[in-house]
Amino acid sequence: MGTPQEVKTKLLSRLKALRLPGFREGFEELARKAVEEDLSYEQYLLELTYRECDERSARKIERLLRDSRLPLEKTLGVFDQKRLSTKAARQVRSLLDGSFLDRRENVLAFGNSGAGKTHGNDRAKRTHLRGERSRKTDPP
Fold first, then answer.
1. Contact between residue 5 and residue 28 where contact means Cβ atoms under 8 Å apart
2. How far is residue 85 from each of residues 67, 76, 88, measured CA to CA in Å?
3. Which of 12, 45, 67, 126 counts the most CB atoms within 10 A of its CB?
4. What is the sign, positive or negative, of the torsion defined by CA atoms of 45, 51, 52, 53?
5. What is the pLDDT of residue 18?
6. Of 72-81, 92-101, 111-120, where does mean pLDDT reach its minimum?
7. For 65-93, what is each residue's pLDDT tens digit?
8. String of DSSP letters for 42-95
9. Do 49 and 57 touch, CB atoms closer than 8 A?
């Protein structure tokens, strides 16, 4: 096979060709951890796959946010919710919990110019693109 350095060089090359940056960046650290914690090969590979899936998910979210061209300055922190009526505030909270997505419902926003329709919708979109809903799932 060759010296440890040659093996590492070949492995890095193959991982790059397979487009596995999570493996490439974490295999050495996780290999040391696996030896220290006496993990099996399967457990080691599982940890690497979790890292790869997490990194891919994070990159996908960042790409979707960038492609969405949502204004960065429109966040819930700068949205003046005191201006909203009780009913409208309840509807904004409903948008942020994302339950309308599960029901596959459309969202229509009506109101006067400057009322915050776009601001609220942009924040809801950003929240859901980042996966900030209460639902948590393991990577496939």
1. no
2. 33, 16, 5
3. 126
4. positive
5. 92
6. 72-81
7. 788 776 666 665 666 677 777 887 787 77
8. HHHHHHHHHHHHHHHHHHHHHHHHHHHT--TT--GGGS-GGGS-HHHHHHHHHH
9. no
Cα distance between residue 108 and residue 30, in whole Å = 48
Structure tokens of 99? 């339950």
DSSP 113: T
Residue 129 near residue 64 (C-beta atoms within 8 A): yes
- Give the tokens for residue 19: 């487009």
For residues 124 and 42, the answer to whether their CB atoms sit within 8 Å is no
Per-residue b or e along 19-41, where b marks 16 or more CB atoms closer than 10 Å to that residue's CB:
ebebbbebbeebeeebeeeebee
- Gap between the Cα atoms of 23 and 21, Å rounded: 5
Token pair for 33: 């951890």
How many residues would you count in the chain? 140
Q: How far apart are CA 21 and CA 16, in angstroms?
A: 7
